[in-house]
Amino acid sequence: MSHDLHESLRDNVRILGDSLGRTIADDLGTGFVDKIETIRGFAKHGRQGDQQSRRELIEYLRRLPDRDLLPVTRAFNQFLNLANIAEQHYRARFRRVEDYKPGSQPVLSELLERARQSGHSPRKLVESLAGMRVELVLTAHPTEVIRRTLIQKYDAIDDCLTAIESSTDYPERGVRAQGRLEELISQAWHTDEIRHERPTPVDEAKWGFAVIENSLWQAVPDFHRDLDNLLLEAAGERLPLDAAPIRFASWMGGDRDGNPNVTARVTREVLLLGRWMAADLFLRDLEQLKAELSMWKANSALKAEVGEVTEPYRELLRRLVSRVEATRDWAKAELDGRSFEGGPIIENRDQLYAPLLTCYRSLCDVGLDTIANGALLDTLRRVAVFGVTLTKLDLRQEASRHAQVMEELTDCLGLGHYREWSEQQRQDFLLEELASRRPLIPRRWDCSTESREVIDTFRVVATEQPEALGTYIISMAAQPSDVLTVALLMKEVGGDVRLPIAPLFETLDDLNHAGEVIDRLLALPGYRALVGDGQEVMIGYSDSAKDAGQLAAAWAQYRAQETLVEVCRRHGVDLTLFHGRGGTVGRGGGPAHAAILSQPPGSVNGSLRVTEQGEMIRFKFGQPDIALRSMEIYACAVLEATLLPPPAPRTEWREEMDRLAAVAHGAYVGVVREDPDFVPYFRAVTPEGALGRLPLGSRPTKRRQDGGVETLRAIPWIFAWTQTRLMLPAWLGSGEAFARRLEDEGGLEVLQEMRDQWPFFGTYLDMLEMLLAKADVGIAAYYENRLVDEPALKALGEKLRSRFTRLYEVLLRVLDQQELLEKTPLIRQAIEVRNPYIDPLHGLQAELLQRNRDADGAISADLSRALMVTMAGIAAGLRNTG
Predict the structure, then answer these.
(1) What is the pLDDT of residues 444-485, one digit of tens each?
(2) Where are the beta strands (DSSP E) in 682-761?
(3) Nearest residue to 845 (alpha-carbon basis) of 693, 690, 623, 637
(4) d(Cα 515, Cα 506) in Å, to the nearest integer?
(5) In the chain, pLDDT over 90 holds for what percent of residues?
(6) What is the pLDDT of residues 731-774, one digit of tens each?
(7) Which of 35, 297, 494, 863 has the most CB atoms lying inside 10 A of its own CB?
(8) Distance CA 639, CA 747 (A)
(9) Which residue in 780, 680, 777 sits closest to 724, CA to CA?
(10) Dihedral pair phi/psi, residue 860, rounded to 5°
């Protein structure tokens, strides 16, 4: 390990690694540990440039008997997970920003001071934070490869590290913590790291709720308490009690796009689970408050509510506890299919909030502010953020499914064939029906199973409190009629509930036309009367990158946002942009602070929605300290982008990006879409075929089971390339674009000017740099040598690697660096530390893939499991995998 790595991080990696070694020795003997050390030694020396060690590593792995393959893969996988724990612990302890870049650590106190110096009054700061609407949307994309039972053990290991570090003056505590650490690592080693069955959408939702229970429940009031203290210092006042700058929504159990497992029944069950868990968590708070608020001094309002009793706060809380208990019992009865015969339940947020507010105001009125601003304030903050449902559940469905409903309906009613109508005919029909008072859908309509499922989903909407639901997202939206159709179905079937409707623009063509579509939509009086002065639009990152290549997609996303901001400003509509980001660069991933500040000026105007998916939920929100820091980063970035927005790009920079994107797009499409050898190469050299068997999430890996790359979901598409370390989706095309520009006189100077002065371009280069640092063309070549026979496919692989090398060289020129990650040494060191443990997994994976193919997929259960573990281990080692 590099001597520059912070001492505490190095020590913790050593502590965890030594403990794992002892655990493995106890289980399999010291001889097996010697094998692991031999493999690691070859990998380490190979990374130091010793080609003989690289060859010996591969030969050693290929000679391993079948019985050793699974325990070897498990050993390296387990170490990488422990290294992640150590790094996560380091980040939480030292409050490092997620990109570890010196000088880029956003601190709210510093930002508030900068805003004040820029002319913003203290009142403006309070108003901006109080009015901020940042919604983090938890999604269950299948990249979280670690089982929940192991995550719980890893969290407990983190607690042990804290105890060991704080035991200097109490050595006996350190000894106890070390013993517990050994026990937990042994438990983890003896636990199967691979699920045997795919999680259901309900399982995924439970996992999301567990993150709230175990981490966010504590982190949310801590975040608000820190914010209050800063504002008291800077402006002399707290946040308003009902302010919730950061809230949480979820797609788990609501995202039905391409996932037949998400049904109306599942959505209803997940909503009830949220109600049950919210009641259960609030009961714990209320019991604590009932125990603590034993005061007798109260104001007249509280006395009027509870009468002349000796402990008025406890009396009011006792009544509230009774209703919350009834709510929990009601939700459980509904889940079990039983009738509920208890007392009145809590239906909405205000019914829980109002009694607590009465207590708070009474305490303040009688001079007990210190007590009011203690545990009671924390509970009020939780109610403001989580409500009585924990999260708002978004619903997502593909536009074609709504069109199918309308096609069947118009055919049934003898009105013609909806799908054959022009866009104008569709709009005229939909607007007329939206304005009509008569029902459109017959009471006994015998529609298809697919259409019945769509209708049933809207029936669930009709039975829910509006605050339980978030936004209705339409994927593959392309026309105003796609939005109007959902509005009509909501009116016809959704009762009195009217959810915000967000079209999702996710292909290059859709992004290029997004502004035009929203302009036409907002110009329709019937639509404006329906939605008022607010519009949400979702920008797709992963599918646009798969469709067009990362550089062209990033520029199309930026331009689409610029246009949408201008269109909504012209129509007098408040725009909320919803960013469908993933964890990887190829899916719009990257440090949140840099990503938000690189958006077009005006696009982050106090409001933002963004997806947090799979493994990134655990990395950002899995522990209270990390979650607290992540929320601070989001609040910092959105406040800065709102009060101190970045400058608009110069005209010449825009023209530059147009040229770069055109070249990159042409190069990307020329390979991915037009080269007949590309799809066969992709399927031969990556574990894409085996990936479908890994029980990662509830969603199928493909939208359709036939066809090429276009049918593959963006997540497995990127996951497969990450496993081979070529990382192709995030860089293909960029090298040609930059190299051609550097051939022009003055080209380098222009690119470097954009790098230094335009946050969008600088952030793009930072992400590309990190991606290239994690890639490894030598490993990619090994997969090819082991798994590809056809000369044409080998020739394509050679071309792809030469393109990567070309980009590597030109990127260093643009960055004016001798090596990658010069300015982010901690990321570089984290990659270097992990490589000797990831490299053997690559060698084993390629070997297992070949054995699996030789056996026509009929390898033993242990070897199949070993293959799955290599995928999990590589994913853990590289962190942002899909």
Answers:
(1) 899 999 999 999 999 999 999 999 999 999 999 999 999 999
(2) none
(3) 690
(4) 13
(5) 73
(6) 999 999 999 999 999 999 999 999 999 999 999 999 999 999 99
(7) 494
(8) 35
(9) 780
(10) -65, 165
Nearest to 400 by CA among 472, 461, 450: 450
Q: What is the CA radius of gyration of the chain?
A: 28
Q: How far apart, in whole angstroms, are the C-alpha atoms of residue 752 and residue 587?
A: 25
The owner of tokens 């060690």 is: 53
89, 546, 579, 842: the catalytic one is: 546
**Average pLDDT of the residues in 542-555:** 90
What are the beta bridge partners of residue 536?
576
Q: Quick check: 406 and 445 in contact, CB under 8 A?
A: no
Cα 721 to Cα 881: distance, rounded to the nearest angstrom: 9
Distance CA 298, CA 146 (A): 51
C-alpha span between 202 and 254 (Å, rounded): 10
Phi first, then psi, for residue 310 (nearest 5°) are -75, -25
Show the tokens assigned to 318.
């006792």
pLDDT digits (tens, 9 = 90+) for 775-810: 999 999 999 999 999 999 999 999 999 999 999 999
**Cα–Cα distance measured from residue 661 to residue 655, given in angstroms and rounded to the nearest whole number:** 10
Element (H, E) at 613: strand 607-613
Q: Which residues pair with 574 in a beta bridge?
A: 534
Cα 156 to chain centroid distance, Å, stands at 23
Active site residue 579: no
Give Cα 848 to chain centroid, integer Å.
Answer: 31
Handedness of CA 51, 52, 53, 55 (dihedral sign): positive
Q: Beta partners for 247?
A: 135
What tens digit of pLDDT does each residue of 111-127 get? 888 888 899 988 898 99
Rounded to whole angstroms, the Cα distance separating 76 from 873 reads 7
Structure tokens at 498: 């009217």
CA 836, CA 879: separation in Å to the nearest integer?
15
How far is residue 415 from each of residues 408, 425, 872, measured CA to CA in Å? 10, 12, 53
Single-letter amino acid code for the residue at 420:
E
Token look-up 């009471």 returns 443
Residue 693: partners with Cβ closer than 8 Å, 6 or more residues away: 864, 868
Q: Torsion angle, CA of 406/412/416/421, rounded to 10 degrees?
A: 10
Confidence band of 511 (pLDDT split at 50, 70, 90) = very high
Q: How many CB atoms lie within 10 A of CB 317?
A: 26
Q: What is the DSSP letter of 258?
A: T
> CA distances (Å), 136 to each of 408, 607, 634, in order?
36, 11, 9
857 φ, ψ (degrees, to nearest 5): 80, 10
Write the CB contacts of 33 (distance below 8 Å, at least 6 apart in sequence). 21, 24, 25
Interhelix angle 734-742/550-571, rounded to 10 degrees, is 90
Please choose, from the candidates 445, 441, 205, the residue with its C-alpha nearest in 3D space to the C-alpha of residue 335: 205
Buried b (16+ CB within 10 A) or exposed e, 853-880: eeeeeebeeebbbbbbbbbbbbbbbbbb
Count of other CB atoms within 10 angstroms of residue 341: 8
Q: Which region among 134-143, 567-576, 760-769 has the lowest average model confidence (pLDDT)?
A: 134-143
Given the residues 141, 153, 593, 794, select the one marked as catalytic: 141
pLDDT score at 719: 85
Asked if 546 is an active-site residue, the reply is yes
At which residue do the structure tokens 């392309």 appear? 478
Cβ(607)–Cβ(129) under 8 Å? no
Q: Report the C-alpha gap between 171 and 457 in whole angstroms.
A: 58
Which of 136, 90, 133 lies closest to 616, judged by CA?
A: 136
E strand or H helix at 737: helix 734-742
Residue type at 401?
R
In this structure, the number of other CB atoms found within 10 A of the CB of residue 329 comes to 18
Beta strand segments in 296-386, E: none
> Taking the mean position of all CA atoms in its chain, how far away is CA 289?
34
